[in-house]
Q: What sequence folds into this?
């Protein structure tokens, strides 16, 4: 722990209000004065106890892909509705659709246990830099350095997970994270709880209100929350070390809040030129390719209800990727993020250049740029290969099957992440389920489009497997003919045949003489070569980036929040609206009346009947905000969040839970590259919206008591 | 004049702040206290001199389809950029595109005279009810009553226009208007000035910035203004009786403003059931039909650059009609306009029923509803016929040609309005110009679609001309075959042949034995029958509506603004933002920075280079609003405007010009049916935006001096 704090001291640049996904250790470094400045009245020692190495902030627990927090002494936990969809599906039957209708356990006996849903409660935070760094330094090549880190990580995690779990927990789970590209490394030690039961999920018309249409937007009217309860391995309610009682008072504009959780990944530590590659090549290419795919899927399924249904999921997902890409480009431009990063780098270089001790930093930066130049030389080739999985089933599935077989041939521990035995069930299920997404005429069009893109690659960036099969085709008609022949000479698109292929070793697969599988093996070989190349690049970055980043933070002379890496972070901010463009102001809060006004009776805008009735009858109870004159539904704050923060608690200055984070606004997507205080806004579901439903719609008085907001007699 | 004032006294119901397109006479009736309440410090006698029968308010002059106002003693006049497009086109050459680049006359000698552009300055307002009403009352049938009014109108206007024009004017022009469906009638006597010269028009990137995309929306960044100068018949600058000096101080949120001009038409005097017909039948049908046409034109021109260009104007116009229809339906629902009208009517009926003197009013209302019932019985038939002109060229042109020929056979004065000799040149030109909008494959699809709609009409509402030709077709293929045959047996779609047809009498046209023309004559006969039916309905309404409206205003007991009828009106309001939906607030002002932020380099968002340069260099001069920190571009106010108010001056409490009205927000389209104070907002170009350009971009110091805002030495 101490070492991690020392590294924290090395980090730097003045943080803007709201900016910074701080580690708990950095919060200690920033000090009680700073925390008070953020509007927090709780003593710093309560937020984080230096001796224990945990604190109130560690009441941010990790859920699959999400965050959450305990809200009662009896293991009640709040998170997003979209984080528990798997439990809702698990318990849904044709007669009772929990996703559609929601669920409220009338008593603890009625809580719905889940087979697979697990949560991880952090128990300890451990700096392991001293165990990792020497092994990296000893490596004789870039690839070796990469592999040394993989080994160190696997070893440390395996070792850590042998430790005895805390009281009531099922197992110890450990996660490994690199900070600042390798300046430091840490393990988070979790108590895993595997008995998690659904207590309350609102109906779809609350939890998913607005759906994809409202996704990434404001104003928002989604009640994206749910309650589950954690049980010990003995089946008793779990008693967490900390919990956040719910606030009945709620928030108002300007109030201080903090959002805690496990943000996944961000890119603020990239060099300006690396960001440029994202802003000027990667995201524009993503936008162009997804736009082409969307158009061709729409065209190929026009007039076919069967085709339209089949491609609808893929279309939605492509549209999402495109919306994100557009948002990244727009946000990077709007925030002048490239220019800011260039200026910041120039300052660090000017500071480091005359210092003999920093000579390595200036060189490291050059090395990182040289590495980027290498990537740029084969950029189009690599991008095309990466897009394979989003192109067509006839290209994506064979490559996946080839890869599965190749990895299966290795001992379990040596396989690529995601291809170990424990991952197989999920992959098998997905490959079976995705059959319904196949519409052959559209798939052929997508295959043709990808192959044409591959054939248009620069001469020195060709994909051999494609050239061998298609380079001699004279025109589109000829290409289409050869593609059709491939489809005809393959069983990959047949669900039954494919389900058998999942479990076969390479020899068996190859013996099938299946044309698409043969193409899959050939493409997978190129993909594997690319992976090796990338592992080498990663190994080189592990050498250079920490040197450069140490200079950046050394120059700053104070804590600089490291990029997100799925480790515990806290961000302090204020409830605040924003001006998305001249003449328009987004207010920081939305209301029940606004939610009702959006009701169309068509998905995703169908307000549940009981809620509509209560709202129209003016049954607002004590949850009416005096200033708003209505029940608040969602609020904005300028917290610094990203993917992984779904379900993160938003707490007020006294440590009470006032909301649950569930999204960012579209203008703020490029936040991953730089914080722009003008439009950096995260979206929280207001806790009072949940409490209003529990009290006025559901009559769940026991729950309200447990949440600390029992009605005064 | 006195009589008109008496009628004004009969009108009523409490007006909301901002509500009311008042006649000048009503402003007198509302009194000085009321005017002061609106924030106006000018004495009422200055706004309107009872003795003279004119006043400052009569410095709202009429332009073709627009309004405008004098802004200097030397006849300088401000209006919208979009109101002078015809002058810009007149003077554009391939080498100098005034619409694209704008124009500034360096001296008076450089001002660009226009051949056709005329303005009308009001000289007197005359109540003519006593001359009209007896002729209506003497009519023996509804149709006779309608014709009696047509005759009265024509006679009064002809008589009036014989009067000598005022000093410097070319001619006297008179317009006739019915108030409240015939409660009163008035003539406005205008001095026509036919020597109007272009002084300044900003480039397209200012005057039309945002184009169709921003049309009807907020935030808005269009500098929709232009300056022209009126000259007397002797070629000297015209000296108007009144003018509005420009305000250098501008406006801020909450400031009082008034907008003056000639709003065209509104429908607040309709019965609730008549509004229902609009909201539930007419606008939804418009939306459905235009949606079908848009889809079929897009489909039929897909992949054809030629077709795409040909239908682009029609597509834009259909999209506009659809956007309007959707806005009307949404706005009527949002403002609960039907329910409010029902409630208001019920109150009037309850008030009138026990009064023997009002017996006629209750009956009149029933008669108007009976009239509506008659219309509803043949509604689908009539709507289909009305849509002919928007359907296809092959249907629209022949009907127009048949009608032209039919009207030409009559003496000029007996023809339908729009078909007199003076209208011919424009019609001929349009028929020639529209050739470029013809794309036969798309046109055939549109013809097919209309015919299918006609064949699907209820049994008792058939269109005989269509039944005769198409009812026996078995399927679409057969219909298409017969349509193709029509196209083949016609010369109507040939531009040269058509240009000859324009001047032929019915016999000559019929002698051509042209299949489409024959269909055109048959359809025109049905259209003519519909017109006769409608004239009868109008005649009936002329009997009943005034009786009902007199009761409505009698019940109110105070001035009620009558529906717009292209006569001079004034509306008093405040600079004010609005909340279009929960969580979003529209600020009342936009800025230069906001305009620059929208610049994409692609139409309609191309900021002119010199303006971009000046803005980026921070050359804001004295036009920077301290509070906004920037040059203001546009502002919202809750004035009660409609079509015809384009170019209307917005003046402040002291009679200085602060802006030029040019649009309403989309939420406010249904304003024509009822005023909803929450979202009733008109859009004004801020005068300071014009002044900033003249001073900082154009260096037009003489003009600034003439406008009363010379820079202090």
A:
């Amino acid at each position: 722990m101490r070492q991690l704090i020392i590294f924290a001291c090395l980090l730097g640049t003045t943080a803007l209000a709201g900016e910074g996904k701080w580690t708990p250790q950095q919060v200690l470094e920033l000090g009680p004065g700073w925390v008070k400045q953020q509007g927090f009245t709780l003593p710093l020692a309560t937020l984080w106890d230096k001796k224990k190495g945990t604190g109130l902030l560690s009441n941010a627990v990790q859920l699959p892909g999400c965050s959450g927090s305990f809200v009662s002494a009896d293991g009640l936990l709040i998170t997003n509705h979209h984080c528990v969809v798997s439990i809702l599906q698990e318990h849904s039957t044709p007669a009772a659709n929990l996703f559609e209708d929601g669920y409220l356990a009338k008593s603890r006996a009625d809580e719905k246990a889940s087979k697979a849903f697990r949560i991880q409660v952090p128990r300890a935070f451990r700096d392991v830099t001293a165990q990792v760094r020497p092994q990296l330094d000893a490596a004789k090549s870039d690839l070796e350095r990469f592999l040394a880190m993989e080994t160190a990580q696997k070893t440390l995690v395996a070792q850590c997970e042998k430790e005895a779990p805390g009281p009531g927990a099922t197992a110890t789970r450990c996660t490994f994270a690199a900070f600042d590209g390798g300046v430091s490394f840490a393990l988070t030690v979790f108590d895993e709880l595997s008995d998690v039961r659904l207590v309350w999920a609102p109906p779809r018309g609350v939890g998913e209100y607005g759906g994809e249409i409202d996704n990434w937007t404001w104003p928002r009217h989604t009640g994206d929350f749910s309650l589950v309860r954690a049980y010990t391995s003995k089946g008793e309610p779990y008693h967490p070390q900390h919990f956040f009682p719910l606030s009945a008072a709620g928030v108002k504009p300007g109030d201080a809040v903090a959002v805690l959780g496990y943000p996944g990944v961000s890119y603020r530590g990239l060099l300006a030129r690396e960001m440029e590659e994202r802003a000027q090549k990667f995201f524009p290419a993503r936008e162009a390719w997804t736009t082409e795919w969307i158009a061709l899927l729409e065209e190929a399924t026009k007039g076919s209800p069967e085709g339209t249904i089949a491609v609808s999921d893929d279309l939605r997902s492509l549209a999402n990727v495109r919306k994100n890409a557009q948002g990244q480009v727009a946000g990077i431009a709007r925030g002048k993020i490239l220019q800011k990063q260039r200026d910041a780098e120039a300052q660090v270089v000017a500071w480091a250049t005359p210092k003999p001790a920093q000579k390595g930093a200036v060189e490291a930066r050059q090395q990182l740029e040289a590495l980027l130049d290498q990537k740029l030389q084969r950029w189009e080739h690599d991008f095309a290969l990466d897009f394979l999985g989003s192109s067509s089933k006839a290209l994506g599935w064979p490559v996946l099957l080839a890869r599965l077989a190749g990895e299966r041939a290795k001992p379990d521990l040596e396989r690529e992440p995601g291809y170990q035995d424990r991952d197989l069930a999920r992959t098998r299920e997905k490959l079976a389920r995705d059959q319904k997404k196949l519409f052959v005429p559209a798939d052929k069009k997508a295959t043709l489009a990808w192959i044409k893109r591959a054939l248009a690659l620069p001469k020195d960036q060709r994909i051999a497997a494609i050239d061998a099969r298609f380079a001699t085709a004279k025109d589109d008609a000829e290409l289409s003919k050869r593609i059709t022949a491939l489809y005809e000479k393959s069983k990959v698109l047949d669900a039954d045949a494919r389900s058998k292929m999942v479990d076969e070793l390479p020899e068996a697969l190859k013996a099938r003489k299946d044309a698409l599988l043969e193409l899959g093996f050939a493409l997978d070989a190129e993909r594997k070569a690319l992976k090796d190349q990338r592992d080498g690049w990663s190994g080189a970055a592990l050498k250079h980036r920490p040197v450069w980043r140490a200079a950046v933070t050394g120059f700053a002379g104070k804590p600089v929040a490291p990029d997100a890496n799925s480790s515990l972070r806290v961000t302090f901010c204020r409830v605040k609206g924003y001006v998305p463009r001249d003449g328009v102001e987004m207010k920081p809060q939305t209301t029940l009346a606004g939610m009702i006004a959006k009701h169309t009776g068509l998905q995703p805008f169908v307000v549940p009947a009981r809620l509509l009735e209560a709202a129209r009858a003016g049954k607002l109870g004590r949850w009416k905000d005096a200033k708003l004159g209505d029940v608040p539904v969602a609020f904005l704050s300028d917290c610094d969040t990203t993917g992984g923060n779904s379900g993160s608690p938003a707490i007020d200055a006294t440590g009470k839970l006032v909301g649950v984070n569930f999204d960012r606004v579209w203008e703020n997507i490029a936040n991953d590259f730089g914080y722009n205080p003008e439009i950096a806004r995260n979206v929280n579901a207001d806790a009072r919206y949940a409490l209003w439903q529990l009290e006025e719609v559901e009559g769940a008085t026991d729950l309200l008591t447990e949440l600390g907001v029992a009605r005064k007699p």
User: Anything to note?
Assistant: Residues 168 and 232 of chain A are 4 Å apart (CA to CA). Residues 515-556 of chain A form the longest helix (42 residues).
